Amino acid sequence: MGVTSLLDSADPGHTVRHPIGGDLAAHRQQVREFLAPLDLGGQASEDFVLAVDEAIVNVLEHAGGRGTLILTRGGGEVSAQVCDRSGRLIPDDAGLEPPSPGAPRGYGLYLIRQFCDDVRITRLVDGTCVQMTLRL
């Protein structure tokens, strides 16, 4: 299964897609607007926004700066997929352990895990997708 087929499996009635670019504030706003109808409350919403932001930063810094953000809601959950075409991130990079104290980098995946109910990293033939899920 490639990135395209993974993206097409989402319910189009509750899904939006955005190309990833360098404007992080715009991406955070897209996520906030998508979450607004769910009335999650301030902290849960902002934690999810931060998790998505961290995944997008990884694409910008480590995966050539291009990818797709796919936001989906329904079935009692909201999810975000951040997909790139580099395929550099592998499932073993799931951020299960915190970075070493004082480490200058390596916090992104760990924070994503702290803020989401489920995180899956899928390496595909033509890239990688990080799917972050928050149960409502």
- Unreliable spans: 1-13
N- to C-terminal distance: 28 Å
Major β-sheet annotation: 5 strands, antiparallel
CATH superfamily: Histidine kinase-like ATPase, C-terminal domain
Cα-atom Rg, whole angstroms? 14 Å
State the domain count. Answer: 1
Number of separate strands = 5
Placed side by side, the strands forming the largest sheet appear as: 1-2-3-5-4
Protein name: ATP-binding protein
Pfam family, one: HATPase_c_2
Organism: Bailinhaonella thermotolerans
GO molecular function: ATP binding; protein serine/threonine kinase activity
Write up what this structure looks like.
GO terms for molecular function: ATP binding; protein serine/threonine kinase activity. Keywords: ATP-binding, Kinase, Nucleotide-binding, Serine/threonine-protein kinase, Transferase. It comes from Bailinhaonella thermotolerans. It is a single chain. With 136 residues, the protein is an alpha+beta fold. The chain has a single domain, classed as 2-Layer Sandwich (Heat Shock Protein 90). Helices cover 35% and strands 28% of the residues. The chain has 4 helices and 5 strands, in the order αβααββαββ. The chain has helices at residues 3-8, 24-35, 42-62, 108-115, and strands at 15-20, 67-74, 77-84, 118-124, 127-135. Strands 1-2-3-5-4 form a 5-stranded antiparallel sheet, covered by helices on one side. A hairpin with a 2-residue loop joins strand 4 (118-124) and strand 5 (127-135). Helix 2 (24-35) runs antiparallel to helix 3. The chain is globular and about 35 Å long. Residues 1-13 have low confidence and may be disordered.
